């Protein structure tokens, strides 16, 4: 497997506060890589720097062989990194279909755009049923499906997910995570930030634990699930 994303020594400041203190992580093509950690650990900040929503104070980010550190978010999206943000942020004044079309704004090939619609509707049949509905009328779970579907519409090489299980019922979380496995099987690489450590480690290939802006642990997901420190800190003993 080849390396799709390599982050080295990533630093981020919020004014006088250093939020990221030299984060290193690698994402290999065709894998699911998780970033775990408590609230305030720097998980979302890491994703925002990778996707260009925040400018780093230092460090390197290489995506598909190109340096993307400090590039604007729309240029990074064009290169193939699409993000489904924490809190979903669906466009409530638009229908489900219109939301998805916004996600595919970079895709100029009409045939590819149609294939992307087909892919999203196959992964999330409920979105097809509700294609003409206002997105504001969807349940929380359906809005999460829409947020992921919208990101997939951009034909991502790397799909970034920020807390996809947040606020969802356990059955819905199970469905979403099963769908993430299918997305990986179809060839899309995934970088996921989650507080639901156990569910995430079950589908991830590799994981990093972030504490106060630094990586405190990392390894194969199956190994971390057996690690005593991780069990006591994040898996409820």
Keywords:
237 residues, alpha/beta, six-stranded mixed beta sheet, 10 strands
List the helices and strands and how they pair.
Blueprint: E1 3-14, E2 17-28, E3 32-36, H1 43-50, E4 58-63, E5 66-67, H2 73-79, E6 81-84, H3 96-103, H4 110-123, H5 125-129, H6 140-152, E7 158-162, H7 170-185, E8 189-194, H8 197-203, E9 206-211, E10 214-220, H9 221-224, H10 228-234
Parallel strand pairs: 3-8, 3-9, 6-7, 7-8
Antiparallel strand pairs: 1-2, 1-4, 4-5, 9-10
Task: Please characterize this protein's 3D structure.
The two termini are 34 Å apart. The chain is α/β, with parallel strands linked by helices and 237 residues long. The mean pLDDT is 92. The chain is built from 10 helices and 10 strands. Helix 3 runs parallel beside helix 6. The strands form 2 sheets. A 6-stranded mixed β-sheet has the order 6-7-8-3-9-10, with helices on both faces. A 4-stranded antiparallel β-sheet has the order 2-1-4-5, covered by helices on one side.
Mean pLDDT: 92
Strand content: 25-35%
Q: Note poorly predicted spans.
A: none
Number of helices: 10
Q: What value does the Rg take, in angstroms?
A: 17 Å
Q: Helix-strand pattern, N to C?
A: EEEHEEHEHHHHEHEHEEHH
Helix and strand composition category:
alpha/beta
The end-to-end span amounts to 34 Å
As a percent range, the share of helical residues equals 25-40%
Number of β-strand runs: 10
Q: What's the story with the biggest beta sheet?
A: 6 strands, mixed
Spatial sequence of strands, sheet with the most strands: 6-7-8-3-9-10
**CA-based shape:** globular
